[in-house]
What we know:
5-stranded parallel sheet; 4-stranded parallel sheet; 10 helices; 35% helix
Amino acid sequence: MRHLIDPMDLSVEEIDGLLKLADDIIASPDKYANACARKKLATLFFEPSTRTRLSFEAAMLELGGSVLGFSSADSSSATKGESVADTVKVVSCYADIIAMRHPKEGAPCLASMKSDSPIINAGDGGHNHPTQTLTDILTIWREKGRLTDMTIGCCGDLKFGRTVHSLIKAMSRYANIRFILISPEELEIPDYLKEEVFGEGGLEYIKARKLDDVIDQLDVLYMTRVQRERFFNEADYIRLKDTYILDMKKLKHAKKDLSILHPLPRVNEISVEVDDDPRACYFRQALNGKYIRMALILTMLGLAKGEMN
């Protein structure tokens, strides 16, 4: 049995296999319509979610399987004091595979030690979000036709943004990738990433304070929102929340083939006027999330060729 807790749990070859499978699902959806018949996915979301939870559920339903679970801790036995370990142990009696989101870093890892079914980390605190990373990589691959030789700008909340942390780690293994990290000083990437990925790993990066200063260098721009729920101080959130806003004025200086990604939800960081620009990929990105999760479910259940060992 295999779990997915961190994007680095997957080799580059396994990621490439998932991308190809997702691409085939997009091209021939009918071929997979009953692939998960009589299989059940449990979605254990101890933290609110729209896209991630619904895309997991849509993925399983389109594969012919069924779904059970809860969408917040308030609707689970966590309100009675039940531990994550016990919840997962019980639910694994009912489901063939589990997608779990939790506000505490490491909770899905703990769950994987107790579960009798494969666990997929659907986001744990400010730590990891591997299926969003797979979504992002599939989107980059489909938009750019490659996963090498590019400059990626990550803009906004790089301190608490688990999607950024996961993407940086995953893309660090592809050739000739350069990152430009655009954030206020208070929201720079955590020290462990600076040390492990950019330091020991030797990945090239530069820091920037202003998006305008670097947007012309970017092949991919990964926008993020400043996350109110991660702040302990409301005044700090209010001061930083509108630091970066992407609009058409800024895009005048960007490459014609720039790909703009955002894990969503957005607040003010991308003006709605950008939505109609062909470089805006974030809604296509959301759709790709369903397809890559279909590929992952199939693979982790051993129902796809080249499954994870």
